[in-house]
Here is the input.
Amino acid sequence: MKIIETRELKKTYTLGKVEVNALNGVNALVEEGEFVAIMGPSGSGKSTFLNMVGMLDVPTSGEIYLNGTEITKMEEHARVEYRLRNIGFVFQFFNLFMELTAIENVMFPMMLSGHPFYKERAEELLESVGLKSRINHLPSELSGGEQQRVTIARALANQPKLLLTDEPTANLDTKATHEIMELFRRLNEEKHQTIIMVTHNPELGAKTDRIIHFRDGKVVK
Amino acid sequence: MKLSELKAALFYARRDIVKNKKVFIFITAAIIFATANIIIVNGFMDGIANDLVSNSIETSIGHLNIYPGEDDRFIEGVGFKEKKLSSMDEVVAFSSRLYASGTLSFRDKATAVNIIALDATNEKRVTNLLEKLDRGNTLEANDRDILISFRLAEDMGADAGDDVQVVFENGASQTYRIKGITHTGSYELDVNTVFMAKAEANSRLGFDDKASIILVKLTDKDIAGEKKQVMMDELGVFKVKTWWEEVEHIVKSAGAWSEFSNIVSAVGLVASAISVGVVIHINVVHKRRQIGIMKAIGASNSFIFTVFIFEAGLFGIIGVVGGDLLGYYGTRYFETHPFWEPITRTWFRARFYPYLLYNASIVSFGITILAGIYPAIKARRINIIKAIWG
Here is the structure.
């Protein structure tokens, strides 16, 4: 079953008097349960694509179907609600709320959505990412790898259909990078979690099911 | 907004405001002191006004006060009017006073004085003017001695037991012994005033059956308004003032001072509110990326706005509760520990009224919330893409 389908997706930014076509007619498809890497040179449109399918931004033209729902014409409040319940994000760095402990960070999206057992589920999620003993630590007391694992637990809080990650290991050492990739792989294989990961690293790309190559705002392969 | 979002906003706001404990303590202390300042200063203003009004009622005026007509210096036919007053059910007591002027001489000094002549027995039933003595003894009915105000005594270097000469406005002159020195707390009565028996003044001035004012004490001062016209009709007088009309100028004057002090207090409060606004604003600026991520994971713009309004609200609640407590105990303290005011030589004491808490709380909380609105709007307008990717 298709979880993402884009049709002739275009995004044009205006920088002063210059118009930049960040996406130039992207047609892409991701099946449910896939672990997909998006690769390409800087400025190829990878992150812009992620913003569009993550409903953080709206395209200039074209259509995006998430789980069969056309999302580009949704009202802002509906987009927010859809994002909260269906999409999880893991960004490159400084992802966590620094004044909240690890468990509070994971609880937060569930508190927003009104999950009745947010504390128990947050504990389960942190245990599943190997941080049971660190639940009451502030982000400043955690290593970079641990912080990213908390972020992943938070992204999974509302059981999203789609996990979007943008260079999730860019600031991590090799060991932590390996652990995060293992975690993604486990989530994908055991929970059938659909994951789309933007990366520059071919080694990481090779660990996914499929790579979508971007160049000049288009899917080239 | 859903209840779950409100709970989450409150949860985050609570964590956020205490993350920097020093800033939290500084900001809440500013609001606490600003709120307490409003309560205590207004407590003083109310206390001073109240004391002035009470003092005036106790010493200077009756519940109803009968004056001469517009073109007359004296009320004529006082004997008849007193008889009428005696027959009225609501009248408890009355005192006719005669005001005149003259000169008082002691040794090589002389000064102009106001002479208040009264019937001591009647006056004691209406006011406690004759009990307000610094030293010496008070006047009794048909006394031939006099009382003088404490400022007059100071200026003349005279004291109880001394003999002074009084020259009346008609030129009549008489030597009197000072029986006592008064200190009423009313500026007008404490300046250059001589008190003497009305019979004695009448005999020197050649007056009969006259008064400058008749002070009337009623069974209840609250019925003064409704009895005013009755009194005018029954006695055939044209100018009667209630106690409230007599003290109106004091209340208005206190009100003007109160407004001034409120402006001063407001400056302090606005300063503390600005510090709340600045702290939240800095928070918003420093948290751009976090706010972006918060939006990315599903927080709405109204949620973001609410978080920062809650932060201002929490500062406000803690500051107002602390300020109310400090203001309450501060005002209570100054009720029992008044300031000595050397010019009027009276005690300035604060007085606590519950409305002081309500007003200060509403104003402080309101201004603190207002201070949070701008940064909250700024936070809700943050663009997700720019915040996350710069």
About this structure: Chain A has a mean pLDDT of 91. Residues 34-60+73-210 of chain A form a domain with the Rossmann fold fold (CATH 3.40.50.300). Chain A has one domain: 34-60+73-210. The interface with chain B takes residues 47, 51, 54, 56-57, 76-77, 80-81, 83-85, 88-89, 91, 94-95, 97-100, 104, 108-109, 111-114, 154-155, 158 of chain A (CB under 8 Å).
